[in-house]
């Protein structure tokens, strides 16, 4: 059933993109990748993913701005947003949740823990 769930991974770090893409595909998700915020916005427009794993510090458009634009759009408000960021100060995390994040995971993170959190989010999508 997860196969119908589209996950967009947005990060400017190729090693993170590759490892997360591998993990999410292994879990059975349909995976898309973007290397910056503007590429992410183009993919969101075309594919309308259910979950976005979103870095904050990226060229062109940062993750906070991508999240804000998604949550302002009625068409995309349902998308679950998981920030993955090295910005781990309380103010950064609070800002992430204030603009609409469903989860905030600080880097470095446990891939096992991240996959469990994504699967929990996906269960909420499947059951609605």
Automatic annotation (TrEMBL):
Pfam families: Response_reg. Residues 6-122 form the Response regulatory domain. GO terms for molecular function: DNA binding. The keyword Glycoprotein does not apply. It comes from the Bacteria. One of its GO terms (biological process) is phosphorelay signal transduction system. Keywords: DNA-binding, Phosphoprotein, Transcription, Transcription regulation, Two-component regulatory system. The modification 4-aspartylphosphate is found at residue 55. SMART domains: REC (SM00448). PANTHER family: RESPONSE REGULATORY DOMAIN-CONTAINING PROTEIN (PTHR44591:SF3), STRESS RESPONSE REGULATOR PROTEIN 1 (PTHR44591). This is DNA-binding response OmpR family regulator. It comes from Arcicella rosea. The lineage of its organism: Bacteria, Pseudomonadati, Bacteroidota, Cytophagia, Cytophagales.
């Amino acid at each position: 059933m997860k196969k119908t769930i589209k996950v967009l991974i947005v990060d400017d770090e190729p090693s993170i993109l590759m490892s997360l893409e591998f993990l999410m595909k292994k879990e059975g998700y349909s995976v898309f990748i973007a290397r910056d915020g503007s590429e992410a916005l183009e993919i969101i427009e075309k594919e309308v993913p259910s979950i976005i794993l979103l870095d904050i510090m990226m060229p062109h458009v940062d993750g906070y701005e991508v999240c804000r634009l998604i949550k302002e759009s009625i068409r995309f408000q349902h998308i679950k947003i998981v920030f993955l960021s090295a910005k781990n100060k309380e103010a950064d995390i609070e800002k992430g949740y204030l603009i609409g994040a469903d989860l905030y995971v600080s880097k470095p993170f446990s891939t096992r823990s991240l996959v469990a959190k994504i699967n929990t989010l996906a269960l909420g999508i499947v059951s609605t």
